[in-house]
């Protein structure tokens, strides 16, 4: 499959799916407190998506390819030095933790994918910095999206900013086209050179989701087949939006309710 250009009807469905994904992050916010387990957060999100939104949690039983066991839960929860794809379970969140919650819903056949960091109490400066840098890197990446810009332009601004802040960019995972499929072409790298790679066209939808480490960029996968951690155990952070290339710029499809017009 090549890059899909969404029709106006498909874009409307992407807007709905994106809004629902952001609504889940809004809904779960008051529960993300010291003492809660990541498994409890998963159950609350699962029930909300299935019962209130009448949507499908895309991660549940998802297999990106051979070699991956099906993902066993409905959201990803990645704590402290976990980079991404953390599996919710018995872990109790405690003061000083940072956690990424990554939500992907399917509504009417279309996907919305968004994640954000949460702080439990007051985390160490290094961990808060990783989150702040990941957020700003994502925003800078989104800001260059318009017809005629390239994927390399996006990767370049993200990498340049993150490295200027003495953080590193994880290379092994990237943003992705999104639509009827969870992970479509193209791959949206969070590093690169200006003017290189695919040229953006109105109607493309993809995610920008930089994973930023406070230390080195090396990662490894845990034996659960999913969880990615930093090799040096430095804190890692990620923020993610699903975006649409518009006639003259970009529309963020996964804005939180308080940021919508
Ligand atoms: N939501 C992740 C992303 O942003 C993918 C998670 S795959 C899963 O692409 F199976 F772990 F859910
Ligand atoms: Co994604
Ligand atoms: Co995601």
UniProtKB/TrEMBL annotation:
Record's Pfam families? Answer: Peptidase_M24
CDD domains membership: MetAP1 (cd01086)
Query: Under which EC number(s) is this enzyme classified?
Result: 3.4.11.18
Q: How is the cofactor bound?
A: Binds 2 divalent metal cations per subunit. Has a high-affinity and a low affinity metal-binding site. The true nature of the physiological cofactor is under debate. The enzyme is active with cobalt, zinc, manganese or divalent iron ions. Most likely, methionine aminopeptidases function as mononuclear Fe(2+)-metalloproteases under physiological conditions, and the catalytically relevant metal-binding site has been assigned to the histidine-containing high-affinity site.
Q: Which reaction does it catalyse?
A: Release of N-terminal amino acids, preferentially methionine, from peptides and arylamides
Binding site residues for a divalent metal cation 1: 102, 113, 240
User: Which coenzymes or cofactors are required?
Assistant: Co(2+); Zn(2+); Mn(2+); Fe(2+)
Q: How does it assemble?
A: Monomer.
**Role, per record:** Removes the N-terminal methionine from nascent proteins. The N-terminal methionine is often cleaved when the second residue in the primary sequence is small and uncharged (Met-Ala-, Cys, Gly, Pro, Ser, Thr, or Val). Requires deformylation of the N(alpha)-formylated initiator methionine before it can be hydrolyzed.
Family, similarity comment: Belongs to the peptidase M24A family. Methionine aminopeptidase type 1 subfamily.
HAMAP family the record matches: MetAP_1
| Protein name as catalogued | Methionine aminopeptidase
Organism name: Thermithiobacillus plumbiphilus
Gene name of this polypeptide: map
């Amino acid at each position: 499959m090549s890059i899909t250009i969404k029709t106006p009807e498909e874009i409307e469905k992407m807007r709905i799916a994106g809004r629902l994904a952001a609504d889940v992050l809004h809904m779960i916010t008051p529960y993300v407190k010291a003492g809660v387990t990541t498994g409890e957060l998963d159950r609350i999100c699962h029930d909300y998506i299935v019962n209130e939104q009448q949507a499908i949690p895309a991660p549940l039983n998802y297999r990106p390819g051979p070699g991956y066991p099906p993902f066993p839960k409905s959201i990803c929860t990645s704590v402290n030095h976990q980079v991404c794809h953390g599996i919710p379970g018995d872990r109790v969140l405690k003061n000083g933790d940072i956690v990424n919650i990554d939500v992907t819903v399917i509504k009417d056949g279309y996907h919305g994918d968004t994640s954000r960091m949460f702080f439990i109490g007051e985390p160490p400066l290094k961990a808060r910095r990783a989150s702040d840098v990941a957020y700003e890197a994502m925003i800078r990446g989104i800001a260059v999206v318009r017809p005629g810009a390239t994927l390399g332009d996006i990767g370049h601004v993200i990498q340049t900013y993150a490295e200027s802040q003495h953080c590193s960019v994880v290379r092994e995972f990237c943003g992705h086209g999104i639509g009827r499929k969870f992970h479509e072409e193209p791959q949206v790298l969070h590093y690169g050179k200006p003017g290189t790679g695919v040229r953006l066209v109105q109607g493309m939808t993809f995610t920008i989701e930089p994973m930023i480490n406070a230390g080195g960029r090396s990662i490894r996968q845990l034996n659960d087949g999913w969880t990615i951690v930093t090799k040096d155990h430095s804190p890692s952070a990620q923020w993610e939006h699903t975006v649409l290339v518009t006639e003259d710029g970009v529309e963020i499809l996964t804005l939180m309710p308080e940021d919508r017009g």
